[in-house]
Amino acid sequence: MGKIRFNASEVYKKLQALSIVAKDKKPSPIFNDILFVGTNRKLYMTASNGDTWLTVSCDLISQEDNFSTCIDATDITKSMSNISECECTAELNNSDNTVKFNYGNGKFSLPCNSPSDFPSQQTTINNCVSINIPVSDVIEAISYVKYAIGNNEVRQILNGIHFIIDTDGMTAVATDAKKMCVVKNNNITSDSQNEFTMSAKTTNALLSAVSENDNSVVNVSFTEQIVVVRNANFCLTASLIDGRYPNYKAVIPQDDHITINVNRKALYTAVVRTMPMGDIESELVRLDFANNILTVSTENYLMNKHAQEVVECDCGAVDFHIGLKGSFLMQCITSIKSDDVSLDFVDERKPVIIHPTDKTTDEYLSLLMPMMLN
């Protein structure tokens, strides 16, 4: 027996964070459940898909005896969403394997499973590299580069974010071989070079567990196979992607280039407005630069459709044109937070480097492969 009282809205928020892990395919039926453990006036909730474990916690209003059970993730999440404005009492009844919930003027019960059936989470690892990183820096690194993560069944190493931490700083890289994003933080360093690749599912779970307003620090411990990220509010354990990440620096053009500055919002709006008139399959967008004017245009020859929009830019007397995939360009622009963006071109056959105007390419860059113009 065990009895706890909690704020349903707080529990529901935590269950939403766990849903990133709980919704994945499961190797065993027990992974359809969420493990609940109430102890010392804290409620700990754990979800897993077999490769990733995420534990989050919230305060309890009151507690009678320790509370430990497993409840189906879908059932408990839907139940809490419907009573999120209430305080709720949960009482475990081991005789019939149910948990009885009472709230306001209502009640319900859900079946439960033994907590001993739920595989334990590895929260500490030996012979590992351990680094403390501010939560805000973790959010920034993942948020900037995640749009470029691949979905490649053959090259699994591209299906995540690669982190490099050395004496120069922490670099986060993501690429699908058609687009790439790199962000560097010079404030996070290590005495030696350390690298690991975290899957997209793991990075999404990490983002769901942290808060944008969180000023705390997370500890990141990792080996070649596993990573543990934790602070006082959560603990994430996950398998790393095995393999050697490609040399991303090799694809960044080192030639002399033309730099053109343009308002980020104006460029994004122009691409959004013109893309519906272009080719749906190729998503080709043509950019023409001349006399401080950028002309964004699309065309669908078969359907006799065409769109064009003019945007002011800082290109001087440069006369240049290039084709880019519209959806990739929009993803890149969206990830950038500054008012203006800079586009670095070598020629129409080489990758375009895009970065915030107020940052150097050593701090942030996105790279897009060009498309052939008709």
Brief summary of the model shown:
The chain is an alpha+beta fold and 374 residues long. It is built from 6 helices and 25 strands. It has 3 domains: 116 residues, DNA Polymerase III, subunit A, domain 2 (DNA Polymerase III, Chain A, domain 2, Roll); 120 residues, DNA Polymerase III, Chain A, domain 2, CATH 3.10.150; 117 residues, DNA Polymerase III, Chain A, domain 2 (Roll).
Describe the structure.
By secondary structure, the chain is of the alpha+beta class. It has helices at residues 8-22, 73-82, 135-145, 200-209, 264-274, 326-335, and strands at residues 2-7, 33-39, 42-48, 52-59, 62-64, 67-72, 87-93, 98-103, 106-111, 129-134, 160-166, 169-175, 179-185, 194-199, 217-222, 226-230, 234-239, 258-263, 284-290, 293-300, 305-314, 320-325, 340-345, 352-356, 364-368. Helix content is 18%, strand content 43%. Strand 24 (352-356) and strand 25 form a beta hairpin. The relative contact order is 0.11.
* Tally of alpha and pi helices: 6
Number of strands: 25
Biggest sheet: strands side by side, in what order? 14-11-12-13-25-24-23-18-21-20-19-22
**Distance from first to last alpha carbon:** 72 Å
Average of pLDDT: 92
- In the CATH scheme, the class of the largest domain would be Alpha Beta
Q: Which structural class fits the helix and strand makeup?
A: alpha+beta
CATH H level of the largest domain: which superfamily?
DNA Polymerase III, subunit A, domain 2
The major β-sheet equals: 12 strands, antiparallel
Report the uncertain regions: none
Domain unit count:
3
Strand content: 35-45%
Shape designation: elongated
